[in-house]
Amino acid sequence: MKKYYSDERLEEIFVQAKNNIFTRGLAIKLEQEMWRSQGQTADDLYNFLKLDKKGFYDLFEGPAVVTWVSYATKLGNLKEHPVQFVVISELEKRFNYLDLARMLDYASPRTREMKRLVTSLQKMQFEQWWTKKRWTPKQLESKLDAQDPKNAELVRLSFLQKLLLSTQVRSLVVNQASK
Prior knowledge:
This protein is mainly α. It has one domain (40-178). Helices cover 68% and strands 0% of the residues. It has helices at residues 7-18, 24-37, 42-48, 63-78, 86-94, 97-106, 112-132, 137-143, 153-178. Helix 1 (7-18) packs antiparallel against helix 2 (24-37) and helix 6 packs antiparallel against helix 7. The longest helix is centred in the C-terminal third of the chain and has 26 residues, at 153-178. The mean pLDDT is 80.
């Protein structure tokens, strides 16, 4: 396909194909395989999709971020030792962890797909804080300085709520397994 079409034209073709429910899955697979065969990294694709031009409040608008998250996840899973938090790690290269939490918290997804993506990324970030960084709610609270107006109470509450839910779910699983 690269023989006959420019990168921009191919992207237009893939966008059109992804808008059709019958061709969406195939278009996504072909597009990702083309990028992978070209050696495109998650960083390369982030720039190609012009996500680097998006601002704090509009990164999680439009289909480009969904495409990037899907590709970054695929690349992370293809590694010899798959990376559990690859998308969060990639985003934290561009935004510090608190700004990313704020961005996810302030995101106003307009579609169901985007709402699922933002919720999934929030959950992934919270799990990373809890499991990889081993932060407790108290430690997070100290990092989220209450005097800083950017640190919305919502970020703190979201983390605590998801932490509580994860703890309850894990507790239920352990209790069920021991019966």
